[in-house]
Write a structure and sequence with these properties.
The chain has 365 residues and is α/β, with parallel strands linked by helices. It has helices at 4-7, 20-31, 49-52, 69-79, 93-98, 100-123, 160-178, 185-188, 211-220, 240-256, 276-287, 312-318, 326-341, 346-358, and strands spanning 11-15, 35-40, 60-63, 83-86, 130-134, 191-197, 200-201, 225-227, 233-235, 237-238, 263-266, 273-275, 293-295. A seven-stranded parallel β-sheet has the order 3-2-1-4-5-6-11, with helices on both faces. A two-stranded parallel ribbon has the order 7-10. A two-stranded parallel ribbon has the order 8-13. The chain is globular, with a radius of gyration of 19 Å. The protein starts with a helix and ends in a 7-residue tail after the last helix. The relative contact order is 0.14.
């Protein structure tokens, strides 16, 4: 699916590369031989995957804020990329209740500034051919129904984070229609798409207020795991599954012009849309050592209770599909965590998992 020959020497610009998903993506692209430049704030946590795996050794790094329009344009023009992947975001639902203005500024205006930077680059005859805005499954108007959301379903969002991602999708659609119309691709040469993924898990996520990192922190300190919404159902998947979708989509955009310039879902199979409590029970079972959990007796801020994606279009038109089921994704996350506990070479562990994933056939594990 992912062509090593395509990526070798390919110039890629990533925003948000110091985060969890961004760090995994940098390592994967470097292993493929790509020439990667990242633009991002400093890593958001300590510890963090970016530093633990020495991402700066394989990625040209510019520290900056996507809300700083001039700095973003300068970094993009200097990098002169062929492919742009926009991942910088305020990614936490609960944080969006505490800091809604920052959330909208980063997730909405950050998208505007990124696309404006791309527009400036095109005006200066730069080489950008493919742009992907990474949003979220939470961009959809959540009806709490049992069906997966399709790319044509309405945007919405109850909380500031989810709504900001819906707004980011609308910004992308407007810029595509106004400045990067697939019908006039030959005039501007840019194919602009968006990618929507669900809850990702994997080694190296130390974010606050996320289920798996909260579980890992408790396990590492021999504490009881606290869970807020035990019955909430989420489309869980290993981080490499959506990242493989982004890479495949970028190839298609680059190779086929405007034909793939639209929104795309990247989620797990239906069987891996599981309750929060199921996930925690499975983690405790696999970890052993008397791992346990408790349910908090408080009323958290509103979060969707049921949400999953319909990925039929990505499977049929891109040839993409998830490779690791949820049980295996949990195994690989705990494998990484135990390597972290034992002070092993974590970059080597990540690259081994990327290689294993790349060699896994569809639907295995």
């Amino acid at each position: 699916m992912i062509e090593r020959d395509f990526w070798k020497g390919r110039k890629v610009f990533i925003t948000g590369h110091t985060g969890f998903k961004g760090s995994w993506l940098c390592m994967w692209l470097h292993s493929l031989g790509a020439d990667v430049t990242g633009f991002s704030l400093a890593p958001p946590t300590n510890p963090n995957l970016f530093d633990l795996c020495n991402i700066q050794e394989c990625t040209k790094t510019v520290f900056g804020d996507v809300r700083n329009h001039d700095a973003l344009i300068s970094a993009l023009l200097d990098a002169d990329p062929e492919i742009v992947i926009h991942m910088a975001a305020q990614p936490i639902v609960r944080a969006s209740y505490q800091n809604p203005v920052e959330t909208y500024e980063t997730n909405v205006m950050g998208t505007v500034y990124l696309l404006e930077a791309v527009k400036k680059a095109v005006e200066r005859k730069k080489n950008i051919k493919a742009v992907i805005n990474v949003t979220s499954d939470k961009c959809y108007e959540n009806m709490e129904w049992i069906w997966g959301y399709r790319e044509t379903d309405p945007m919405g969002g109850y909380d500031p984070y989810s709504n900001s991602k819906a707004c980011s999708e609308l910004v992308t659609s407007s810029y595509r229609s106004s400045f990067f119309d697939p019908g006039s691709y030959k005039a501007h040469g840019v194919a602009l798409a968006s990618a929507r993924a669900g809850n990702v898990i994997g080694g190296g996520d130390f974010s606050a207020d996320r289920l798996i990192p909260d579980c890992i922190k408790a396990l590492l300190t021999n504490e009881e795991i606290n869970i807020r919404n035990p019955h909430a159902i989420r489309p869980w998947q290993h981080v490499l599954d959506p990242l493989s979708g982004y890479l495949l989509l970028a190839q298609k955009l680059f190779q086929n012009g405007g034909a793939y310039a639209e929104g795309w879902n990247f989620g797990p199979v239906d069987e891996d849309a599981r309750r929060v409590e199921w996930i925690v029970e499975k983690i405790c079972e696999k970890w052993g050592s008397n791992a346990s959990y408790k349910i908090e007796n408080r009323h958290p801020e509103h979060e969707a209770s049921f949400l999953k994606l319909d990925c039929s279009k990505s499977k049929q038109e891109l040839g993409w599909s998830p490779r690791w089921n949820l049980d295996h994704a949990i195994d690989k996350t705990l494998e990484w965590t135990k390597a972290y506990m034992n002070q092993q070479d974590l970059k080597d562990i990540c690259l081994q998992q990327i290689e294993e994933y790349s060699n896994t056939k569809e639907g295995c594990n």
